[in-house]
Amino acid sequence: MGKTYGYIRVSTREQNEERQLIALRELDVALDGIFLDKQSGKDFQRPQYLQMVKKLKKDDLLYIKSIDRLGRDYGEILEQWRILTKEKGVDIVVLEMPMLDTRRGKDLMGTFLSDIVLQVLSFVAENERSNIRQRQAEGIAAAKARGVRFGRPEKPTPENFGYLVEQWKGEKMPLSRVLELCQMSRATFYRRLKSTEMGDED
Known about the structure:
Elements: E1 4-10, H1 17-25, E2 34-38, H2 47-55, E3 61-64, H3 67-70, H4 74-87, E4 91-94, H5 108-145, H6 161-169, H7 175-182, H8 186-201
Parallel strand pairs: 1-2, 1-3, 3-4
Helix pairs in contact: 4-5
């Protein structure tokens, strides 16, 4: 009999590892056998996951709550599944999908069905990640169309901006010194200058 482990992953935005932890503890997985990453599932370069893989040995059993907790990249999920089950000889149980239990159906048909289910679920996980990115892009585009600005807020124009501009225009101060005093780039300076002059015309 090998050892029993559990793997938990949450993104840094969602602090709900408790639900996954409870599910694993109900299966009597020891706390020192549970590995937790608070990181995106876009790849497998996660410290706790990598540490767990080093510890896993043949005939060990690994529980995860759902396939998207393992990862969200279709190709990498399949590759990691192959490494764990084929190369390391570990059994994996996905709690929310009973068909993904490598302890059962180790005959050809059982393996075939598990592989199909795994590929479908892996595709769904990655597709959802793509949909999230698409929704984020659409949301940003819509916000920009409404005039919402992203990134760092611009520094306010200094109160003595007009005076500094006059000094520069009268060749009493070089532009480099004006930019230094205003703490602006050349592009920002000319943009603010244009905005100010247009305001004067009004």
